[in-house]
Each structure stands twice: as C-alpha cells, then as structure tokens.
C-alpha cells in the first residue's frame, strides 16, 4: 500500500493511518510512475478536471483504477479512456457508489426479476442540503464549471443518471432535454449594501449564510473549508480560521463567490425502447434527500433512501373480473425494509448509505477474478450516464433536444 499527495501533511497522515514506510509515499504522480511501483489498483481521487490526464497516465502504464466520478467532463475524453483501458487490458471501476447500496440493489433485484414487467417510467429527485451545497458548490471547489471541468449535474448527479441507466439497462438513452438556472445564489439576490466578505457585512447578524457562523459554528464540511490552510484540521486554531475567512472564498458573501453553475435543473430522457426518465435536482434545500419512483408494466417501486425502505406495488390480478373496483382494490402494496441499517455513526459502513463499503468489497472480488455483484461499475457501464449529463448541459445551454448518438457517438 502507498499514498500519493502533493501536500506533505496529508502524506504524513496516510503514513500514520496505514502504517506506511517512507518509501511508499510519493509527492507526485510522476514520481510514482517513475518508480514503476507494482500494485493491484490505484485509487484516483483527484479533482474532476484532473481525472482524464491522471487516468490516462495510469492506464498507459498498465494500472487498474478505482476512479472517482465523474470520469471526465467531455465525451471525447470519456471515449478515449474507455479505448485505452481496453487496449491495455486494464480494469477501471467508477465510483458510482449508490448502485452498491442495499437500497438500490433491492430495486434492481425487483426490476430484473421481471415480476412487474419492463420499466415504463423512472422519476428521480435529489435535494442537496444547504450545508453541503454551500460548502461544495457555492463557496466550494465545485462552484465553477470553468475551473473544475464539471457543472452541478455532472459533479453531483451523475450518480442519479447512472442509477437511471443501470436500473433500465435493458435499453439505452437516445434523446435528452433539460432546463436549469442559477436563480438563488446570484448577485442580484444579495442584501442591499452587502460587502464582499461576511466579516464586515452590515447583514452578518441576520444572514443565514454569514460565513463566521456558517463555517465556524456549523462547520459541516471541514474537509473542504479548511484544506487550503495546509495542516491537519485538529491543529488549526480558531484564530487561524477567522483570519482565513477574511480573505478566502469561504468567507465571501454567498451571492458573490464567482459561482457559475446552476442551483436547480430538470432532465428528461428518452430511451430506445420507449421508456422515459426524469431527474430533478435542487441545491440548497433544508433537508437532503433522494427519492425514486419506478413505474413498470404491472407495478411500481417507490422509496426515499433515507427511510431505508421501499414500497413494492403490483397489480391485484385476482380481482380483474370484479365490477366497480375502487382504486385501492386494484393493487397490493408491500413495505420492504432494507436489511442493513446505515443510520449509525460507524463511517466504515455508513458512507453513502453503505455504498462506499460495498464498492470496495466488490472491487476486491473483481480484481481477484471472483464473482462480483450486479452493481460492478466498469467504465463501459458509465458511458451512457455521462452522455446523458453532457447532452443535458447542451440542451440547457442551447435550448434544444439533444440526440446522443448524433451528438457524441458519430463524430
């Protein structure tokens, strides 16, 4: 085992956490590659805009990769990574961790059983809690598509487009339309007289997003907020944090951070077999949540992943000859409680509702050539979900329906 990082303190943390020897620490990818280090897999958790270049280097040197999503921000790079992985016979597993959760695996199991027929329609929603949204997409490092290479849809919700394609993988997406806007976190909504930084703003005592309270007291994403202080979080003093917030984007007015991404978007997808899917995402909600409603030919599947249960509904076929049926008599609902409970504080299994744990478990089997789960996410499986995101952004920006094959696969 080894670690690669440009920040010395992070290498020191990795060394202590995993009991690494000094010769297993690398200050750059080039250093690692130059030493031709033998290993089973490299976990690529660089920022979005670095995924393509770093993954290409790793693949060209014959390394298997566990790659953070999104794979890359454009179709040409996406398809070239798929090609080089195939040429080098390298395994690339993408961190679409939600498909590994017991919740979504149960939905997949029901669909694949065929008991309620083929998928007709899928409705997915993601509500991004304001604490996460502010620290990642308004003040955070994913606030600018121009800088990080990903818009809000690709950076956050390619999880959801992946679920849409995976649950309905009897077919492929063909056309996409989308609307979206940045209409909340924008300069025109700033309080009158608001200053550039929160610390000296006349509205600091009344503003919900005052950085001195939001970042110092709530401090919901410290791993993002304080990383540029370049030292372990536990060693950062409050005085250092206050000084930092007086000059860094994390201390800026919420409405003037240079954010250039949307804060809400809807996506509609047409599939080759006539089924359809919709995704609605909203950033800055009071509560986080993902909802799914899958309508099949003879039944439905409904659930919020936070509830750790789903409603399985199917036609009550035995009443087909009865007259004057009420709506309640024509179907049967079954509440399915998902076996595992990921609501506790053990982060080794709770991350992404258990998805983080199960993807690593599946990865080990995959690398060992053993039988893997239905969730295994090789790069080929991720192509369609990314193409949906690219097409949605084209549709949103150019106000048109985008044909995936014509736009991306025939060029």
What is the spatial order of strands in the main beta sheet?
A: 13-12-11-10-6-9-8-7-14
Tell me the CATH topology of the largest domain.
Dihydrodipicolinate Reductase, domain 2
Q: How many DSSP-defined strands?
A: 14
SSE succession: EHEHEHEHEHEHHHEHHHEEEEEEHHHEH
| Secondary-structure-derived class | alpha/beta
**Unreliable stretches:** none
Strand content: 15-25%
Description:
The protein has 411 residues and is of the alpha/beta class. It has 3 domains: 92 residues, Rossmann fold; 218 residues, Dihydrodipicolinate Reductase, domain 2 (2-Layer Sandwich); 65 residues, no CATH class. The protein contains 15 helices and 14 strands. The strands form 3 sheets. It has a 9-stranded mixed beta sheet. Helix 3 packs parallel to helix 4.
Features:
single chain; 411 residues; alpha/beta; Rossmann fold; Dihydrodipicolinate Reductase, domain 2; 3 domains; nine-stranded mixed β-sheet; three-stranded parallel β-sheet; 15 helices
What's the short story on this structure?
The protein is α/β, with parallel strands linked by helices. The chain contains 15 helices and 14 strands. The strands form 3 sheets. It has a 9-stranded mixed sheet with strand order 13-12-11-10-6-9-8-7-14. It has a 3-stranded parallel sheet with strand order 3-4-5, with helices on one face.
Topology of this protein?
Layout: E1 3-4, H1 8-18, E2 25-26, H2 29-34, E3 42-44, H3 51-60, E4 65-67, H4 75-87, E5 92-94, H5 102-113, E6 119-129, H6 130-138, H7 145-148, H8 152-167, E7 173-181, H9 211-218, H10 222-225, H11 238-245, E8 264-271, E9 276-285, E10 289-296, E11 299-304, E12 309-315, E13 331-337, H12 347-350, H13 355-367, H14 379-398, E14 402-403, H15 404-409
Parallel strand pairs: 1-2, 3-4, 4-5, 6-9
Antiparallel strand pairs: 6-10, 7-8, 7-14, 8-9, 10-11, 11-12, 12-13
């Amino acid at each position: 085992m080894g670690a690669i990082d440009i920040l010395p303190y992070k290498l020191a943390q990795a060394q202590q956490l995993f009991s690494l020897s000094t010769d297993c620490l690398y200050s750059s990818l080039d250093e690692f590659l130059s030493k031709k280090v033998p290993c089973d897999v490299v976990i690529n958790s660089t920022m979005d805009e670095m995924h393509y270049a770093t993954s290409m280097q790793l693949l060209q040197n014959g390394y298997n990769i566990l790659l953070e999503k999104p794979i890359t921000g454009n179709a040409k790079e996406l398809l070239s990574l798929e090609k080089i992985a195939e040429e080098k016979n390298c395994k690339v597993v993408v961190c679409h961790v939600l498909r590994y959760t017991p919740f979504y695996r149960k939905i997949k199991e029901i669909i694949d059983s065929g008991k309620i027929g083929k998928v007709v329609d899928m409705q997915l929603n993601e509500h991004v809690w304001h604490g996460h949204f502010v620290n990642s997409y308004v003040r955070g490092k994913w606030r600018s598509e121009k800088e990080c290479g990903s818009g809000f849809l690709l950076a956050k919700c390619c999880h959801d487009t992946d679920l849409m394609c995976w649950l309905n993988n009897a077919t492929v997406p063909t056309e996409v339309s989308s609307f979206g806007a940045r209409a909340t976190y924008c300069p025109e909504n700033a309080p009158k007289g608001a200053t550039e930084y929160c610390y000296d703003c006349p509205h600091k005592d009344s503003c919900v997003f005052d950085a001195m309270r939001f970042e110092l007291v709530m401090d919901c994403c410290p791993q993002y907020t304080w990383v540029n202080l370049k030292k372990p979080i536990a060693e950062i003093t409050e005085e250092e944090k206050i000084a930092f917030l007086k000059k860094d984007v994390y201390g800026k007015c919420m409405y003037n951070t240079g954010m250039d991404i949307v804060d809400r978007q809807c996506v509609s997808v047409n599939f080759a077999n006539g089924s359809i899917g919709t995704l609605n995402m909203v950033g800055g909600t009071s509560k986080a949540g993902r909802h799914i409603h899958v309508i099949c030919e003879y039944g439905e599947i409904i659930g919020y992943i936070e509830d750790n249960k789903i409603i399985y509904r199917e036609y009550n076929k035995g009443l087909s000859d009865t007259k004057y049926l009420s709506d309640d008599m024509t179907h049967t609902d079954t509440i399915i409680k998902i076996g595992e409970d990921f609501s506790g504080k053990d982060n080794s299994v709770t991350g992404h509702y258990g998805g983080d744990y199960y993807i690593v478990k599946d990865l080990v089997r995959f690398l060992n050539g053993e039988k893997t789960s239905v969730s295994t996410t090789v790069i080929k499986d991720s192509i369609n979900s990314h193409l949906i995101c690219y097409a949605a952004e084209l549709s949103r920006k150019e106000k048109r329906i985008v044909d995936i094959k014509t736009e991306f696969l025939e060029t």
